[in-house]
Amino acid sequence: MPRLNSCLLLAVSLLAFLVAVCQGTVKITVTKDPVSGETYLRPGGNIKLICTTDQQGKLLRWEVSDGNSTKSVTAIDSKDLKLSGGSNEGRSEIDLSNLSGDLGGTYICSDGISQDSYNVNVLDSKTLIPVHVLENGTSSTVVLHCRQRLQPKLPLIWLRNVGDKDYILNHIPAEDKNYSVSTDEASGYPLTIKNTRRYPSKNGAYTCRLNTTGVAGFEDGENIQTEVTYHTTPDVRFGTEAASASRSKSATKDEPLTLVCVVSGAGQNPIQWSRISENGTKILLQNGTDERHYITRNEEFENRNESRENLERTSVLGFNTVLDEDKGTYVCETRNEYGVASQVVELKVKDKLAALWPFLGIVAEVVILCAIIFIYERRRNKSMVDEEEEEPMKGGDIVVRETRETTTRSRK
Ligand SMILES: *[C@@H]1O[C@H](CO)[C@@H](O)[C@H](O)[C@H]1NC(C)=O
Ligand SMILES: *[C@@H]1O[C@H](CO)[C@@H](O)[C@H](O)[C@H]1NC(C)=O
Ligand SMILES: *[C@@H]1O[C@H](CO)[C@@H](O)[C@H](O)[C@H]1NC(C)=O
Ligand SMILES: *[C@@H]1O[C@H](CO)[C@@H](O)[C@H](O)[C@H]1NC(C)=O
Ligand SMILES: *[C@@H]1O[C@H](CO)[C@@H](O)[C@H](O)[C@H]1NC(C)=O
Ligand SMILES: *[C@@H]1O[C@H](CO)[C@@H](O)[C@H](O)[C@H]1NC(C)=O
Ligand SMILES: *[C@@H]1O[C@H](CO)[C@@H](O)[C@H](O)[C@H]1NC(C)=O
Ligand SMILES: *[C@@H]1O[C@H](CO)[C@@H](O)[C@H](O)[C@H]1NC(C)=O
């Protein structure tokens, strides 16, 4: 027992010693030029980060994080970043000169056991990393991010330029559901855009600007900002004639049919119809290649009430008479400078009589039912007549019933 206790004691003290040795052995000290005690720095200055460790023979490594990913400082190619020392000296230095936002981030120095970090927060437009968005034309909500190489992050002011005027989207009342700006630092103060129409009329450039209110030295309203773009592929849908939700459409054989494709956000780019053949190849359908099919436009399906870029256009694929061979998969496709968009419809061809079969079935059912009732009724009347005839020679209930049964059987 005493031996186990002393063993435990030794283990605990060894652990405590290790923790004491490992903690705080790496340390970053900083010198700045011009000297300032601010969290946020002006561009153009210099900063020197000196990392030391009291672990002998340990190699010091530097990494920098922009808030999303971390990379080794040696991978940074900048004439304004100079790395010195590091190999077994217990000391390594980073000299950042002519500071700019793209040199900013969290600098982490590590000797493999412990580490220390320092946030280099430079307030210029390069400290902002726009995250451009390319979405489908049908998306109803989109979130725009503007990342910051700052720790802590500053609140963002989001702006939208319409005509010659910048609108501050933070100030749009909440009941107007077009835009909302997050107040959450952890998520990075993103902008949420809500599209009220199917095709977004709100695509294009947005500005994110650091709100430097309350940051010492930056109160004079400097616009530290960048542009974030939101672009979409066109919106393609089928008009009311084709079921767009089920993606399938039934046609009746030997009758005419139209498939209406409505497109917005495609500018003047062509709308193309094609058919997927049985072997999977796409066959482009063109106007006038045969007599049974045609391609035209139906403006009745077009919403002319939108701005020019979102103007809807239609392409109608018409069948003069539908044949069995027309069944299959049809694709309506268009593009804009941001990409291709398409919709697919499965065409099913039914026989003219096919629709009638259920009805005929019901009719047949009714006829058979009527016949059964009629026959039954007739039989009942007949047996009642038999009964009346039997009455005079009545000898008891059982006898009468037997007689009735024999008469029924003999009629079969
Ligand atoms: C975050 O970093 C990953 C890789 O480290 C990169 O693929 C991704 O695009 C980055 N995200 C943003 C929003 O920049
Ligand atoms: C400092 O950086 C700015 C832009 O970041 C550049 O215009 C200028 O020439 C640089 N100055 C020196 C001395 O490298
Ligand atoms: C657009 O939608 C299609 C499916 O409809 C999807 O495969 C594609 O990834 C989407 N593209 C974007 C940019 O969201
Ligand atoms: C918000 O959306 C509605 C409906 O589309 C529109 O009438 C209104 O002008 C929009 N407001 C702003 C600030 O864009
Ligand atoms: C910037 O931040 C200050 C302080 O939080 C706030 O009062 C002000 O409204 C913000 N500016 C904008 C344009 O949102
Ligand atoms: C697929 O079928 C079409 C006709 O339906 C034909 O023109 C084409 O050559 C075929 N392709 C292959 C790879 O078999
Ligand atoms: C297709 O051809 C018909 C008849 O030649 C014509 O009226 C129609 O405008 C054409 N459609 C297109 C999209 O060119
Ligand atoms: C836009 O729509 C409204 C109502 O839906 C209609 O009264 C008006 O005439 C339309 N304007 C155009 C240019 O089509």
From TrEMBL:
<dbReference type="InterPro" id="IPR051275">
    <property type="entry name" value="Cell_adhesion_signaling"/>
</dbReference>
<dbReference type="InterPro" id="IPR007110">
    <property type="entry name" value="Ig-like_dom"/>
</dbReference>
<feature type="domain" description="Ig-like">
    <location>
        <begin position="234"/>
        <end position="350"/>
    </location>
</feature>
<feature type="compositionally biased region" description="Basic and acidic residues">
    <location>
        <begin position="399"/>
        <end position="412"/>
    </location>
</feature>
<feature type="signal peptide">
    <location>
        <begin position="1"/>
        <end position="24"/>
    </location>
</feature>
<feature type="domain" description="Ig-like">
    <location>
        <begin position="137"/>
        <end position="229"/>
    </location>
</feature>
<dbReference type="InterPro" id="IPR036179">
    <property type="entry name" value="Ig-like_dom_sf"/>
</dbReference>
<feature type="region of interest" description="Disordered">
    <location>
        <begin position="385"/>
        <end position="412"/>
    </location>
</feature>
<keyword id="KW-1133">Transmembrane helix</keyword>
<keyword id="KW-1015">Disulfide bond</keyword>
<dbReference type="GO" id="GO:0016020">
    <property type="term" value="C:membrane"/>
</dbReference>
<protein>
    <recommendedName>
        <fullName>Ig-like domain-containing protein</fullName>
    </recommendedName>
</protein>
<dbReference type="InterPro" id="IPR003599">
    <property type="entry name" value="Ig_sub"/>
</dbReference>
<feature type="transmembrane region" description="Helical">
    <location>
        <begin position="355"/>
        <end position="376"/>
    </location>
</feature>
<keyword id="KW-0325">Glycoprotein</keyword>
<keyword id="KW-0472">Membrane</keyword>
<dbReference type="InterPro" id="IPR003598">
    <property type="entry name" value="Ig_sub2"/>
</dbReference>
<keyword id="KW-0393">Immunoglobulin domain</keyword>
<keyword id="KW-0732">Signal</keyword>
<keyword id="KW-0812">Transmembrane</keyword>
<dbReference type="InterPro" id="IPR013783">
    <property type="entry name" value="Ig-like_fold"/>
</dbReference>
